[in-house]
Amino acid sequence: MTPPxxxxxxxxxxxxxxxIIVIALAPLLVLLADLTLPRAARRPAALSLALxxxxxxxxxxxxxxxxxxxxxxxxxxxxxxxxxxxxxVIVATLFSLLMAYRLGREDQTAGxxxxxxxxxxxxxxxxxxxxxxxxxxxxxxxxLGLYCLCGLAGRAGAREAALKYLILSSTASAFMxxxxxxxxxxxxxxxxxxxxxxxxxxxxxxxxxxxxxxxxAFKLSLAPFxxxxxxxxxxxxLPVTAFMSVATKAGALAVVARFAYAALSTPQSHxxxxxxxxxxxxxxxxxxxxxxxxxxxxxxxxxxxVAQLGYIVAGMAGTTAFGLRYAIFYLAAYTFMNLGAFAxxxxxxxxxxxxxxxxxxxxxxxxxxxxAGAMTFFLLALAxxxxxxxxxxxxxxxxxxVGAGYAWLAGVLIVGTAISAYVYIxxxxxxxxxxxxxxxxRPVVPSSPLPWIGVGLCALATLVLGLYPIAPSDVLxxxx
Amino acid sequence: xxxxxxLAPMLLGLLLYAWPRSADAAAKWFGVxxxxxxxxxxxxxxxxxxxxxxWLQRPFTxxxxxxxxxxxxWLVLLLTLATACALASTxxxxxxxxxxxxxxxxxxxxxLFVARDLLVFALFWDLMLIPVFLILVAWTPSKSSASAWRYxxxxxTGGLALLLATAAYGMLEGSTDVLGATLGRGATxxxxxxxxxxxxxxxxxxxxxxxxxxxxxxxxxxxADLPPAAAxxxxxxxxxxxxxxxxxxxxxxxxxxxxxxxxxxxxxxxxGLVYGAVVALVQDDAKRVVAYSSxxxxxxxxxxxxxxxxxxxxxxxxxxxxxxxFSAGLFIVLGQVEQREETRSxxxxxxxxxxxxxxxxxxxxxxxxxxxxxxxxGFAGEILILTGLYQTGAVWVAGIxxxxxxxxxxxxxxxxxxxxxxxxxxxxxxxxxASFLELLAIAPLVLAIVLLGVNxxxxxxxxSLAPAQLSAVEVQR
Lengths: 480, 477
What we know:
The structure holds two protein chains of two kinds.
Chain A: H1 18-36, H2 39-63, E1 69-71, E2 76-78, H3 80-98, H4 109-128, H5 132-150, H6 156-187, H7 192-195, H8 203-220, H9 228-235, H10 238-263, H11 270-291, H12 297-315, H13 321-347, H14 364-367, H15 369-382, H16 389-403, H17 407-432, H18 451-467
Antiparallel strand pairs in A: 1-2
Chain B: H1 2-15, H2 24-44, E1 51-56, E2 62-66, H3 71-88, H4 95-114, H5 118-127, H6 129-139, H7 146-173, H8 192-209, H9 219-225, H10 228-238, H11 240-253, H12 255-282, H13 286-307, H14 310-341, H15 352-355, H16 357-371, H17 377-391, H18 395-420, H19 436-454, H20 457-461, H21 467-476
Antiparallel strand pairs in B: 1-2
Helix pairs in contact in B: 1-2, 1-4, 2-3, 2-4, 3-4, 3-10, 3-14, 3-19, 4-5, 4-6, 5-7, 6-7, 7-8, 7-9, 8-11, 9-10, 9-13, 10-14, 11-13, 12-13, 12-18, 13-14, 13-17, 13-18, 14-16, 14-17, 14-19, 14-21, 16-18, 16-19, 17-18, 17-19
């Protein structure tokens, strides 16, 4: 059945995208508050409204749980998978907002917050997108906001980051769009479900899949398509970097997972996905090796993110159902441990200077023991050490790869993790090691105490998820 | 109750960071009290029932399953006793933080030894690395953290191999809750192809941890740089994790792979045995002498475990505990010497015995236990192992194993003479002899050394964790 090109207003399934509507309308209130309220109240009001809107979207999304639903003629599929990804995006947005009190200049904050919410709406749309058009719509909605957000810091590096992101991301989008066109040409449909029945030997189809995956490997920053990541992360303001490190990845990952599981899950089409697992393996190695040499926390977390995304994609190797569940679990764990680490960096920032140099951590264990303890916990989680969600997540990913028959991938994962231990624990050493003058430095007074909430909640979630791992059970099927 | 034994010290350790810095000295006694309580509670819960809390249901079953039977009971006793004694005799800067880390370490190791689930075992295996790393980083005498990194990277690589093997085991068997005595079963379900890889993962982790030549290079520098109290606990108990793993994980679960690995392990064990003894003969740093002697002794235990002979196995169990007792004692006494004289160099030290008879007495007893004097615990283990090896017909192995035991007398006496005897060195600071408290700190270990040496029976009679192999011990007796 060919879906109608124009969906009549009355028959549109608005409830399926209700959370997206909520998070897309909230910025209007944010901007309105910024226009009408007195100067002193603008920042707090804008931030509160953004937080409230995001939280409301989260609650609305939860209400859809357990009611699988195909909306917009197959363009948007609601189910456990979609809601899990939507919630991850929302959590990432909430924690990023907590760091965003001083996003940009005073007159830029409200606009920045609004853009961040619209980007989140794009990522949430990608979470449920089940045809090529919705995928592209979500991706562009996500990216357009981020191009502006990256340049918000007002430093020279920020403008460079924004431009770099714009050009490279557009190039990737072009690849992906071309791939989509080829896929449409090969199958005559934009539905992902229609791709499953395609003639696999047709070169048109194989090239289309390849270009589509290359485009999304850019977005996921899988090696060797990760080169833009550290520069952009370093130049962008801290809350934007935090947002990008999780929300963007979650959106792109949802699309890749749906594409792999819905369009290419037959045994014959597995060969087309092999490159993806190889990219995952490369990411684990390249990301961790490159992170070894970094002296800036944002760059380090960028490379670490490359590796972490490698772990998550590896979980889906062989497109097993349990692998998808554990990949989602690891993504959730990564969300908390990664944003927790970002929140600590935010707390080490002054007005003028971001606390992202590694030297900011020297002797922190003696100056701010609680903050250092929390950071240690997040770093241990990122390194996959117990008793954290990172450890449990790694176990599940290992089980998934071994269970799917990809033992070599599990081996690479172990090697990557061993390298990553040095990356993360190097910072622990800086915090607790013997350093001259470490105890003399005065504690930093953070520009806003809000990230403390993020630190506390992320630490709690990282601990609890490690001991009570819950992964959404009804994630499949991804298309109807 | 059993989980409380593991969790309470960790929580109390973390809470200790809220302790006022002004009361640094009291923090030490708090630590001693916690470890002492843990010792008493363990002693009284010999027959405590297993505890289990569900962790994972899919993709395989894993439970927080704890038991205190068999070898676990004795190892937790050793751990708590060694921690209490080591903390009591410690004197260090930032004492509060040190005691906190030691308590976390004690809790994590308790968790390791009571775990009846492979995945929980792997969890605590990784967890116990962190406090040791932090101690190495924060209290290392040198500016570089080379020893800390070497310790962490070696042991973590082992831990990751263990984790991968555990995950693969879980996927194949459907459950990792397999270490309990009631669940003891053979490894028939593990296919030959996978079985070897899984065994290799476990064995690598255990060999690095023990450590066995050629994976030992993290050990001398780590033991030398750790503060005496931490070195005592790590060498006495943490390094036993590897041998314990061979006894309770691979022996009952993968007997075939154990047999297949026998020639390799004999070679590794024998090389370590001889190499450790020879290097211990020429070391100048007193702590390194003990470190290399450990390499030698632990190689002997490894051979005993793999020989499969019941007598040698029971000897291995006794020697695991014996080595724990005397190496803890050695590190504690050497720490007391270092605190006084500010050096560990055997060449620099000398003639301390004349002015410090109590210190000399302590060192005499632990050194004699280490060199295997009959009547003390080292001998009980060695004689059982050697007799067992002789019984298996591996006479040449027993013969080679005998040589380093004789060399042990040489390096231990060299250590003792170099520090305590000979002419008094003029420029060494003169300090008071061991105080009553310091003697009290070493006394429980000495008592245990004698008790285990005179009557190792209770240890041998212990309900063992590894029914397939160790039940033979009881038949033999």
